């Protein structure tokens, strides 16, 4: 679906470029078509190159991200499990401090404070870590820490009283609070492992393996926790604690069987060695003091172990679990970092290869474009410039022999076209200029009629038509030569009064037309009135040196910001001129909007 969408996108790009070429200026249509096609094919080639690169690059990048996340997830679990072990280790000095041994206060009091500080520091570090990564279990971690602090307060309150009066039940209740905190934390840790495994399924076997070894260590430590209360009070082991201890022993065996299966799957030599150590030290040596205490509880009045002796004999047996966990996590981290390093190497190689391929591709395209397409486009532009009578560019930089030959041919053609256009311009000037007055004639006026018809809405545009009054009488009385003098003088007066305000045409006979662009009806009327007064006061002499007086009538019309046609504009001005003549001549009249 992604590739289909990509191809559809390229098709849309092509259609847009084609429409752009069609809508382009006619004079440059061919040039734009070549340029757009070249651009399109460059885009297609570049897009497929990038698509191929993405197909290769994205999986490698995903492997890199997965390996990085795997390392981070394993480190997070390691931090979680280390906190669980630290909490379990805190219970050992706690149990000894609560015993009745008067010689343990100084030594084990310092040890208990050290263990508590380590646990608190681990909680703080974990909370800070979760704040950074935004884990939703932050409140649960804080809650477990608060529960631990309350359990410590209960224990401190119990040991503050005379320990000779401390009963086994009170001792067991105090330790039971610590065990509840550990169980709550284990539950949270299991939930977090499940959440991590859902997001990173490849890590699930390792995490559950490590979680089982952490649970095994916790259950192994709890076995001793069910016995120390009877040891501290030197009373027989009650049936509930014995059942709980034996249940945990059975549970440790079951968990250990599952762990051994996982160990065989992983096939790590260090795990095999740690498995042997756990079998020898924990399931052999560590259970000896456990069963000794249980048997002594039934057969003798006093135990041969004190709490401190029992803890010192049992606790070292749990170290092998931590070693196993460290070996497992170390192997997992090493494998993940190895994959991440391999992914980085692959990414670097891909980037280098893609860069080289893209460079070669664009170099070839650039060379073709520079040496073939661009010269062809410039030659095409030169032809179009010749047709538009515009100056040509400098194409002397062509490097190939073929393009230089084409350019020399274009120079010959350009000179011929220039000569022909100069000749045509000369003939056009002759055909559109009145020979008597030197003004543009009626043909020139009709030539710009198209421009007048295309006036955009809102632009001011006016037309003034003037007619010399009684010109026929002047010709009859003074002769045609004097009539020509009058027409030349009228043209001169109009030029001097009008300046650059408009364009003057000799429309025919004694009629003149003035096109005023940028002037509305009021402005055109003022200009016409000024012309009328100037002509009325002008002194002209005939060929016989007789004084000739002239006047003129004016008709004014305006486009008034509408898209009016030339015929309509001229018709309005002509009607206004007719009104001026009808009302007695020598006056200016305009046709306002809505008048008939």
UniProtKB/TrEMBL annotation:
PROSITE patterns: GGDEF (PS50887). It is an enzyme of class 2 (transferase). Gene3D superfamilies: 3.30.70.270. InterPro entries: Diguanylate_Cyclase (IPR050469), GGDEF_dom (IPR000160), Nucleotide_cyclase (IPR029787), Rev_trsase/Diguanyl_cyclase (IPR043128). Its cofactor is Mg(2+). It catalyses: 2 GTP = 3',3'-c-di-GMP + 2 diphosphate. GO terms for molecular function: diguanylate cyclase activity. Pfam families: GGDEF. Pathway: Purine metabolism; 3',5'-cyclic di-GMP biosynthesis. CDD domains: GGDEF (cd01949). Keywords: Membrane, Nucleotidyltransferase, Transferase, Transmembrane, Transmembrane helix. The chain crosses the membrane at residues 38-61, 344-366. Its EC number is 2.7.7.65. Residues 459-593 form the GGDEF domain. NCBIfam families: GGDEF (TIGR00254). This is diguanylate cyclase. It comes from Serratia ficaria. The lineage of its organism: Bacteria, Pseudomonadati, Pseudomonadota, Gammaproteobacteria, Enterobacterales. The gene is ydaM_2.
């Amino acid at each position: 679906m992604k590739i289909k969408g990509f191809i559809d996108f390229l098709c849309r790009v092509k259609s847009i470029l084609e429409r752009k070429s069609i809508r382009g200026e006619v004079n440059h249509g061919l040039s734009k078509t070549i340029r757009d096609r070249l651009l399109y094919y460059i885009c297609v080639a570049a897009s497929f190159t990038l698509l191929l690169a993405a197909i290769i690059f994205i999986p490698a990048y995903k492997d890199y991200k997965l390996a990085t996340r795997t390392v981070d997830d394993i480190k997070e679990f390691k931090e979680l499990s280390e906190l669980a072990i630290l909490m379990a280790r805190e219970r050992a000095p706690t149990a000894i401090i609560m015993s009745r041994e008067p010689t343990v206060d100084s030594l084990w009091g310092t040890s208990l404070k050290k263990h508590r500080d380590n646990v608190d520091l681990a909680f703080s570090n974990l909370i800070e870590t979760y704040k950074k990564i935004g884990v939703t279990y932050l409140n649960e971690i804080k809650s477990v820490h608060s529960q631990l602090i309350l359990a410590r307060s209960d224990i401190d309150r119990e040991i503050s009283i005379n320990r000779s009066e401390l009963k086994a039940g009170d001792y067991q209740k105090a330790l039971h609070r610590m065990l509840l905190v550990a169980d709550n934390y284990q539950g949270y840790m299991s939930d977090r492992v499940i959440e991590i495994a859902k997001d990173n399924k490849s890590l699930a076997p390792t995490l559950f393996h490590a979680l089982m070894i952490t649970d095994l260590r916790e259950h192994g430590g709890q076995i001793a926790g069910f016995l120390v209360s009877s040891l501290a009070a030197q009373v027989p082991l009650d049936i509930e604690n014995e059942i709980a201890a034996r249940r945990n022993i059975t549970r440790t065996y079951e968990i250990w069987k599952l762990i051994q299966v996982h160990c065989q799957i992983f096939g790590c030599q260090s795990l095999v060695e740690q498995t042997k150590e756990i079998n020898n030290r924990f399931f052999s040596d560590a259970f000896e003091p456990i069963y000794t205490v249980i048997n002594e509880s039934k057969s003798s009045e006093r135990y041969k172990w004190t709490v401190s002796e029992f803890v010192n004999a049992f606790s070292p047996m749990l170290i092998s679990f931590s070693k196993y966990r460290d070996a497992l996590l170390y192997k997992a981290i090493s494998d993940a970092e190895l994959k991440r390093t391999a992914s980085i190497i692959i990414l670097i190689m891909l980037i280098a290869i893609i860069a080289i391929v893209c460079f070669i591709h664009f170099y070839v395209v650039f060379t073709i474009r520079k040496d073939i397409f661009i010269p062809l486009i410039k030659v095409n532009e030169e032809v179009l410039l010749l047709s538009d009578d515009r100056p040509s560019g400098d194409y002397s930089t062509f490097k190939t022999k073929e393009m230089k030959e084409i350019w020399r041919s274009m120079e010959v053609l350009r000179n011929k076209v220039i000569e022909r256009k100069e000749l045509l311009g000369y003939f056009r000037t002759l055909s559109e200029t009145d020979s008597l007055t030197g003004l543009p004639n009626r043909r020139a006026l009709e030539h710009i009629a198209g421009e007048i018809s295309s006036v955009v809405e809102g632009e001011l545009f006016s037309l003034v038509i003037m007619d010399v009054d009684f010109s026929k009488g002047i010709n009859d009385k003074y002769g045609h030569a004097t009539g020509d003098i009058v027409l030349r003088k009228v043209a001169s007066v109009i030029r001097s009064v009008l300046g650059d305000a408009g364009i003057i045409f000799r429309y025919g006979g004694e009629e003149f037309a003035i096109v005023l662009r940028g002037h509305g009806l009021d402005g055109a009327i003022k200009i016409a009135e000024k012309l009328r007064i100037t002509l009325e006061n002008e002194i002209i002499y005939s060929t016989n040196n007789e004084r000739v007086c002239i006047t003129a009538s004016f008709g004014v019309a305006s486009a008034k910001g509408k898209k009016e046609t030339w015929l309509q504009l001229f018709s309005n001005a002509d009607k206004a001129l007719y009104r001026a003549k009808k009302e007695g001549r020598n006056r200016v009249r305009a046709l306002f909007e809505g008048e008939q």
